[in-house]
Amino acid sequence: MIIDGAIAHDHIVIGAGICGLTAARHLHDAGHSVIVLDKGRGIGGRMATRRIGDAVFDHGAQFITTRSDWFRAVLSDCQRNAHATIWYGGTDEDPYPRWRGTLGMTSIPKYLSEGLDVRTSVQVTSVSYDNELWHVHCSDGNVMTANHCILTAPVAQSLALIDAGGVVLATDDRQALEDLTYERCFAVMATLAHPLSVRLDRPLAPAAPSPVALISDNYAKGVSPVPCLTIHSTPEFALHHWDNDRTETLKMLVAATHDVLRCDIIDATIHGWKFSRPERQHSAPYLAPQGHPGLVIAGDAFGGPRVEGAALSGLAAARSFSTH
Questions:
Q1: Which residue spans of the chain are classified as CATH 3.50.50.60?
Q2: Domain 8-43+113-180+281-323 class, CATH top level
Q3: Alpha carbons 217 and 228: distance in angstroms, whole number
Q4: In this structure, which CATH number among 3.30.70.860, 3.50.50.60, 3.20.20.70, 3.90.660.10 belongs to the domain 182-278?
Q5: In whole angstroms, what is the distance from residue 39 CA to residue 275 CA?
Q6: 206-238 residue pLDDT tens
Q7: Closest-CA residue to 3 (of 164, 96, 122)
Q8: Per the CB 3.0–4.6 Å rule, which of 71, 116, 151, 270 could disulfide with 66?
């Protein structure tokens, strides 16, 4: 079965993280027809919030900072509409406010997605070009077509999609994309029997050589009604233990947390972020491959490793079509 096969949309955006949603928001508000596809059940990418029982965890990005006037205005708009608030910072001693979503980090991408055609749980298998249209093939047999396609997934995943569709990149474009690599990270979501004896009003970074990079208290942060922690591993620990038994890896990170905090963990689960943060970045905010009109590749490996960088990449990708 083919859905939308006879309809050429203006744009298809693959990836409903902050980059993809920013691009789609800009294009939609400019009057274009846009579809956003994501393989996950929810939106936001690494701006992820998960509920386990009564506990609520921000288990990806913990906060947002901003340097640009444009993104500061985006967050201020989210704040006016009760989707974002300042967690800490913004003082003389710490001049950069750390923003968070009011109900968890996904509050912000959910607000940005309002009114957009976002389709989740859609597994894209390939992207191809034929008859001056981009064809997005999905695992259920559906094919969607558009004049333009914006790929915002981690670069390795975007490359896999265009390779599967027979899109051949120029040698220098392909090399530039293959040079963009990512760190890995484990996120442990730990529910506590009672609140911590010491209040964590911001993430705690244990001293080296701990395998734990940060510990964040979702209860003190104001996103969880019950005490619970998000524990992020260092990228070195994640790389070394990625293929090991996750139960044993979880035990190691919980034990390392006990070495730092006196806490009574009653339940814990682990999640692996394979593309946690770019360790190498492209010099431009997006890549428009040579010889492939209407195709743009964007994401935090272009705009910068922070949430703002991904958003700026999405904005630049969307604006690039006004010059085509």
A1: 8-43+113-180+281-323
A2: alpha beta
A3: 6
A4: 3.90.660.10
A5: 15
A6: 998 999 999 999 999 999 999 999 999 999 999
A7: 122
A8: 71
pLDDT 10s digits, 1-56: 344 555 679 999 999 999 999 999 999 999 999 999 999 999 999 999 999 999 99
Identity of the amino acid at 303: G
Tell the burial category of 89 from Cβ atoms under 10 Å away from its Cβ (0-12, 13-18, 19+): middle
- Give percent above pLDDT 70 in the chain: 97
Residues 6+ apart with CB under 8 A from 131: none
Of 116, 127, 145, which Cα lies nearest the Cα of 26?
116
Asked whether the whole model's pTM tops 0.90, one would answer yes
| CA distances from residue 138 to 109, 121, 124, 302 in whole angstroms, order as listed | 24, 10, 4, 26
Which residue type sits at 236? E
